[in-house]
Amino acid sequence: MTRASDIMHSGAECIREHETLATAARIMKERGVGALPICGERQKLLGILTDRDIVLKCVAEGRDPMEVTAGELAQGRPMTVEADEDAEQVLRMMEQHRVRRLPVINHPEHELVGMISEADIARGLPQARLAEFVSAVCAEDDPRSTEVEQPLGA
Fold first, then answer.
1. Do 3 and 86 contact (CB within 8 A), yes or no?
2. N or C end: fewer C-beta atoms under 10 angstroms in the chain?
3. Per-residue confidence at 46, pLDDT binned at 50, 70, 90?
4. Cα separation, 30 vs 18, whole angstroms
5. Residues contacting 150, CB < 8 A, separation 6+
6. What global pTM score does this model have?
7. pLDDT exceeds 90 at position 12
8. In what order do the strands lie in the sheet with 15-16?
């Protein structure tokens, strides 16, 4: 049985809850990632911060990313999977909730041990199953999928 720990990438770097969104954006750029886990003390997972969160919940609202902290955007309890969870169950969860990234924790400490992203899944799935996964996660009712590209000069 393939487990979450088999497909995750370990060593996910956290942004601390008191660090600014500008710091988070810099780390994302340096690491080439679009999301960072938000962690409190002892790697306790508090949330997930995406590049899209920074744009929509900070910049677009006229707030200063040099002053807004990652912790301010950590809302609710993040969806997670345990390291020993069956990989097929992880896929079903991501499809059902239409999430592209999923933190992997150990239990009961709730400490972050890795992340599973679409890229991690793509490396380990047969092409047909990957197509099914992408179709489920990127379903048509996503407002971003209905945007029409405008020709240059229009």
1. yes
2. C
3. confident
4. 20
5. none
6. 0.75
7. no
8. 15-16, 35-39, 45-50
